[in-house]
Amino acid sequence: MHKDEAKGAAKDISGSVKEGVGKATGNERLEAEGVAERVEGKVQKGVGALKDAARDALKR
After folding, report:
1. Are 38 and 57 in contact (CB under 8 A)?
2. Are 15 and 27 in contact (CB under 8 A)?
3. pLDDT value of residue 60
4. DSSP letters of 23-52?
5. Would you kindly state where each structural domain of the chain is located, as residue ranges?
């Protein structure tokens, strides 16, 4: 697992929490921040997976 995958997973989880708290409290700004953070985390996880795949391909 590449470090970007781990950081992305953390952002995804953090964003989910923010989104949930925003929904529960009616705070639209916090909810939107959470959604944006989740998307950023998913992209970062994807980048990490690509880096892993490229590294594995180069080793072969």
Report:
1. no
2. no
3. 81
4. HHHT-HHHHHHHHHHHHHHHHHHHHHHHHH
5. 3-59
Q: At what angle do helices 3-25 and 28-59 cross, to 10 degrees?
A: 160
pLDDT digits (tens, 9 = 90+) for 8-51: 999 999 999 999 999 999 999 999 999 999 999 999 999 999 99
3-state secondary structure of 1: coil
- What distance in Å separates the CA atoms of residue 6 and residue 3, rounded to the nearest whole number? 5
Reference 44, options 3, 2, 1, 4; nearest CA is 4
Q: Quote the DSSP letter at residue 6.
A: H
pLDDT score, position 2: 77
- How many Å is the Cα radius of gyration of the chain? 15
